[in-house]
Structures are given as structure tokens and as C-alpha cells.
């Protein structure tokens, strides 16, 4: 196995020395630090045949028949203090190092040259926390202060306080803010924000959307669709797997590091999503802390010692160990109200516009019948679907694309509707009608005059008076006893459970 080494070092001897002398750090100690840093990166040149083999492998077209063998599929490569690695859509590798010289810390990016097998500096001064790419290979930088920069820029900051981000093939930026816990005029969550460095240009140079760290810890984009890891490190929609890191190849292959650790408890198990079976399987003897994928057969992984592994074997596998025996959950799969007889109907109402559901409020089983808990979990979360179950077992609910708030103002939404899986009917919002109220002291209330109202105070009844803001089926008249009993068999009813889901 050939070695791939650092070409330019972390910085030139003179630049490190100059910075250290300006800060008053002793020259002898600086020179010792330089020697240690350089000694970690051996400068022997790789054989051209080996480089060509790696280049051929790394840029090979994805093959759906390829999987990992039980033999050792990844080999270690020596490199100095690597902490992260990324792959661009055109097959370029970028590594990030993190090291200290005296009192100064440097987190710098390096690019791997596939033609000569060498690493070259991306920028000697820019402090990189993360680097991502769109489908054309344009880069987007996040610095160590959480500042996110525009396309191919090291100067134009588009937003601050970013914890993690991803870029779609169309250049749309999905980002998790490290400080924005709820949406307001200063920090708008779940809303596309546009901007341009050229105010006279009608074309926007960037678009980004922010998510709260209370709900998400990581994200990637697959087929123009975000995949989220929640605040508990659990991936949403792919087998409920505990995830430490995740990456998507240009071909849509999905890789991750699970929470399962090696015997030393330093690195995490490399796993791959198998879409046909809907399961994750473990790549044998492969553990690390960061990963990057180019395609189905080209994967790199960094371990806790700063070493790099990359795929070197294209043989098919015979025996693999699946990480867990879970199918990909659908919308509302964790619902305590919906069951096998009605969940398909409810999923069908929104599956064309939403693909991820996450519970933000569940009264009886988790949060209690409490309006404050409802607003704390569901305000400013974007589209939601509310499901009510009465003590008599009847089920109905409502969808709205407008966020709940606690501001006391009504929300208008021409996409809102009330539904009943029992009756398999949808009541569409009437034109110019109120979708739902936003009173801080009350639960979900749909329609101007309580077409559907969930009381979160057990001393009061919930009620349905359908037909004012939402359209009744032909033959029913608003205000009639038949219309008032239409959804739940009675106008006033007691709730057994209520679930509210935020939707993406």
C-alpha cells in the first residue's frame, strides 16, 4: 500500500515563525513545533501506478452491484492530524487538519490531487470548520466562528451562528443555527431567506433556510431532499438509527457512522444504507469519526488518530451483518392514535408535499394536557398535522401549512383542511377564511368559530362545529345538529389523546 503525504505542510516554516514571533513565543520552541508538525507528514512520493489505481477507483462510475467484502476493504493512509474530510461532486477530496503551534490553533483545509497523489493547501489563513459543495463543484465555507460564506467566497458572510449545513445541487443552503431556538423577526426558522451581494442584480446569489438545534443536530441532502438527524442523534426516516456522522454520494448512496464504537471506545462503526432492503449494514472492521463519499464504491473515513481510510476493493460481498432489523418508517409511524386501518389514508393526504414527520406535542402519553407545552413544542415549526382521538374512539384532525404561534393573531392558509380517516373525507378551507387561531392560552383551534377545537384544559370540552370556515359535504348545513356531530358523533367531546406533528 502506498502512502499519501502532506505536500506543503500545515503552513510554511516562515509564516508560522513570523506569527509566533509577533506573539512573543520563543523561537526555539517554535522551531521544535515546526519539526514535530512536519515529522507527522512524510514526504515520500507515491508510485504513479498506485496513484493511477486510486484515481481510477475513486472516480469510477457507481455500480449498483458493488458492496463491501468481508475482507479488509479500507486501508490506512498516514496524514498529520486530520479531523474531517469532504468530497466534491467532481471527485475532489478535501481534508481538514486541526493543530496548535504554541498558543495558536490552526484549522486548515487541504486538497488532494488525484493525478500526483499529493495534498496542497486550500488556504493558508482561512480557519475552516467545514466545507461543502454544490453539484458543479462550487464550494461553501463555514469558519470556526460559525460564519457561513456565499458560493466560492472567503469574504462574503451570508449568516452567522451556524452549527451544520448542507448545499443542494441547486445551490440551496440548509443550515442548523447554533443559537436560534425559535422563530422571530431576528431569527426566522423554517423560512427561505434570500440575498445577493449585488443589490442591482435581480438574481439571488444565495438562498438559505434555518433550523433549530433543539430539533436537529445534523443534516445532508439526498435527491434534493434533506435528511435530518434529530437532537438525540437519531436519523429521521431511515430506520431510527443512532448517527454520529452522515454523508451522501453523488449517486445518492447514503453512508453514516453509527453510535456503535470499537473496543477502544474511540471510533464509530461505518454503516451503509441498503435501499432495497431498507436497512443499514455494517462495513467490516471500519470505524472512524468523520466520513465522506463520492459514490457507491468510493468512501473515505477519518479515525480518532487523524488517519484516513479509503475504499480499495470493488469485489462483491457475500456475508454482511445488518445493523438493525428495521424498515424505513413512514409518515406518522410512531403515532399512538393512528393504526393499520387508518394511517395509510392520513399519509396519503400529504405524502406528495411532505416526507418527514416529527412529533412536537403529544398530550396524554408525554406532555400532559397543557397549552404551554403545546406552544413550546409546536410554535414556529412550519406546516403541522394535528390528530385528535375522542374518548369514544373517533379520530379526526387538521392540516395547516402556516405555523402555530402564541401571538393572538389568526393565521390564513389556503392549503389548510380538516380530515376524518373514519369517514375518509376532507373538508377544504373556504376562500378568505381563517385557518387557525394562535392564542397562547389555548390548544389547536381551526376555523373562526371552532370548526375543530382541541381543549387542553380537561375541565372544558373539545368541540366540532364544522362548516363555518371549512366546507361541509353536500347535504349538510352549517349549524345543524348533523353538521355538528359529523366528525365525532357529537358536538362536544372529551379528548383521549392529541398528537401534533411538524412536517418537512
What does this molecule look like?
This protein is mostly beta strands and 504 residues long. 12% of the residues lie in helices and 36% in strands. The strands form 11 sheets. A 6-stranded antiparallel sheet has the order 24-35-25-26-28-29. A hairpin with a 2-residue loop joins strand 20 (290-295) and strand 21. It is elongated, with a radius of gyration of 27 Å.
Short descriptors:
504 residues, mainly beta, Neuraminidase, five-stranded antiparallel β-sheet, 7 helices, 35 strands
Brief account:
The protein has 504 residues and is mainly beta. It contains seven helices and 35 strands. Residues 334-503 form the TLDc domain.
Q: Topology, please?
A:
Layout: H1 13-22, H2 27-39, H3 48-58, E1 74-77, E2 82-87, E3 93-101, E4 104-113, E5 118-121, E6 128-133, E7 139-143, E8 148-149, E9 157-159, E10 162-167, E11 172-177, E12 193-195, E13 206-211, E14 216-222, E15 225-230, E16 243-248, E17 254-261, E18 268-274, E19 279-288, E20 290-295, E21 298-302, E22 308-311, E23 321-322, H4 343-350, E24 357-362, H5 363-367, H6 371-378, E25 384-390, E26 395-400, E27 411-412, E28 417-420, E29 425-428, E30 434-436, E31 445-446, E32 452-453, E33 462-463, H7 481-484, E34 492-493, E35 495-503
Helix pairs in contact: 1-2
Amino acid at each position: 500500500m502506498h502512502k499519501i503525504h502532506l505536500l506543503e505542510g500545515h503552513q510554511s516554516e516562515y509564516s508560522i515563525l513570523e506569527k509566533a514571533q509577533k506573539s512573543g513565543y520563543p523561537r526555539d520552541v517554535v522551531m521544535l513545533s515546526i519539526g514535530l508538525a512536519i515529522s507527522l507528514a512524510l514526504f515520500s512520493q507515491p508510485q504513479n501506478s498506485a496513484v493511477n489505481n486510486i484515481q481510477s477507483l475513486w472516480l469510477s462510475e457507481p455500480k449498483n452491484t458493488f458492496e463491501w467484502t468481508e475482507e479488509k476493504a479500507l486501508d490506512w493512509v498516514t496524514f498529520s492530524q486530520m479531523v474531517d474530510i469532504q468530497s466534491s461532486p467532481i471527485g475532489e477530496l478535501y481534508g481538514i487538519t486541526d493543530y496548535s503551534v504554541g498558543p495558536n490553533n490552526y484549522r486548515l483545509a487541504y486538497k488532494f490531487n488525484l493525478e500526483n497523489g499529493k495534498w496542497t493547501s486550500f488556504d493558508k489563513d482561512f480557519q475552516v470548520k467545514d466545507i461543502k459543495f454544490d453539484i458543479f463543484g462550487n464550494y461553501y465555507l463555514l469558519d470556526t466562528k460559525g460564519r457561513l460564506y456565499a458560493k466560492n467566497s472567503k469574504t462574503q458572510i451570508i449568516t452567522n451562528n451556524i452549527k451544520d449545513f448542507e448545499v443542494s445541487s441547486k445551490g440551496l443552503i440548509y443550515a442548523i443555527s447554533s443559537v436560534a431556538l425559535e422563530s422571530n423577526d431576528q431569527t426566522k426558522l423554517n423560512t427561505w431567506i434570500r440575498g445577493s451581494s449585488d443589490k442591482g442584480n435581480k438574481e439571488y446569489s444565495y438562498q438559505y433556510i434555518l433550523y433549530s438545534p433543539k430539533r436537529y443536530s445534523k443534516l445532508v441532502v439526498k435527491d434534493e431532499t434533506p435528511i435530518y438527524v434529530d437532537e438525540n442523534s437519531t436519523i429521521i426516516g431511515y430506520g431510527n438509527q443512532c448517527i454520529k456522522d452522515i454523508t451522501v454520494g453523488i449517486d445518492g448512496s447514503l453512508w453514516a457512522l453509527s453510535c456503535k464504537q470499537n473496543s477502544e471506545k474511540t471510533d464509530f462503526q461505518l454503516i451503509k444504507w441498503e435501499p432495497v432492503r431498507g436497512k443499514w449494514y455494517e462495513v467490516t472492521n471500519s470505524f472512524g469519526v468523520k466520513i465522506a463519499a463520492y459514490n457507491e464504491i468510493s468512501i473515505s473515513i477519518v479515525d480518532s488518530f487523524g488517519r484516513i481510510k479509503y475504499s480499495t476493493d470493488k469485489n462483491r460481498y457475500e456475508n454482511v451483518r445488518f445493523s438493525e432489523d428495521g424498515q424505513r418508517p413512514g409518515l406518522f409511524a410512531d403515532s399512538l392514535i393512528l393504526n393499520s386501518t387508518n394511517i395509510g389514508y392520513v399519509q396519503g393526504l400529504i405524502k406528495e408535499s411532505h416526507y418527514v414527520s416529527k412529533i412536537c406535542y403529544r398530550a396524554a402519553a408525554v406532555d400532559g394536557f397543557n397549552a404551554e407545552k403545546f406552544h413550546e413544542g409546536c410554535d414556529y415549526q412550519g406546516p403541522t398535522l394535528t390528530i385528535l382521538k375522542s374518548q369514544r374512539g373517533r379520530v379526526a384532525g387538521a392540516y395547516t401549512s402556516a405555523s402555530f404561534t402564541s401571538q393572538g393573531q389568526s393565521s390564513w392558509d389556503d392549503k389548510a383542511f380538516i380530515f376524518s380517516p373514519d369517514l375518509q373525507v376532507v373538508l377544504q378551507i373556504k376562500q378568505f377564511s381563517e385557518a387557525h387561531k394562535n392564542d397562547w392560552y389555548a390548544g389547536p383551534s381551526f376555523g373562526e368559530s371552532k370548526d375543530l377545537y382541541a381543549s387542553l384544559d380537561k375541565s372544558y370540552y373539545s368541540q366540532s362545529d364544522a362548516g363555518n370556515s371549512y366546507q361541509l359535504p353536500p347535504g349538510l348545513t352549517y349549524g345543524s345538529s348533523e353538521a355538528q356531530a359529523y366528525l365525532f358523533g357529537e358536538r362536544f367531546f372529551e379528548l383521549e389523546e392529541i398528537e401534533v406533528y411538524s412536517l418537512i
